[in-house]
Amino acid sequence: MVAFLYRMDVGYPGCVNRAETAHVEAGTINTTTPPTAFGIAVANDANGIRMVTGADTAVAGIYVRPYPIQPNTGGLNYPLGVATPPTVGNGDVLKRGYIIVKLASTAAAVKGAPVQVWTGAAAGPHVVGGINADAAAGGSNIVLPNSYFMGPADANGIVEIAVNI
Q: What confidence category does residue 84 fall into, taking pLDDT thresholds of 50, 70 and 90?
């Protein structure tokens, strides 16, 4: 019998899981405030897909990593887990389905717990548009409606969430 000593990697931020159930919408990237990472919550307005701000009360969805992707920096050996999203052109937003994200909070993700989105300035583990498991004080979080964690994060803070906006 084989002994498995480590948990298999969950995936990479922005990767859609269970693609047969996913609803992904394409859009133009806002060149003024483009998303800075895959797997973060984004807003979508008349100027296109953009980073969330403290003034936002809702998000459009989660920014999707296209597959396959040709990184725009770093050459051919640029690691998949740290690919930089394009700042012009088109992008995809997950509206409904399952996606891999990087947990950007100190609180642990719990299966079935609601997903929070950080809308304040980046501070400590929190990043703008980052996915949180804690309801931080100060009004810097908004709840991602009808969304929840599918289980705990792995050792790298990678976790799967269910989205239904």
A: confident
64 within 8 A of 38, measured Cβ to Cβ:
yes
Which residue, 53, 96, 84, 82, is CA-closest to 158? 82
Residue 11 forms part of a structural domain: no
CA gap 86, 38 in Å, rounded: 10
Nearest alpha-carbon partner for 39 in 17, 57, 54, 20 = 17
Q: How many domains does the chain have?
A: 1
Q: Compute how many other C-beta atoms are within 10 angstroms of the C-beta atom of residue 161.
A: 25
| pLDDT the model gives residue 54 | 87
Is 1 domain-assigned?
no
Give the confidence band of 109 by pLDDT, cuts at 50, 70, 90: very high
Nearest residue to 64 via CA among 37, 104, 46? 37
Domain containing 45 equals 16-164
Cα dihedral 34/39/44/50 (nearest 10): -20
Evaluate whether residue 9 is within a structural domain: no
Rg over CA atoms, the chain: 15
SS3 at position 156: coil
Which pair of structure tokens corresponds to residue 152?
Answer: 């705990």
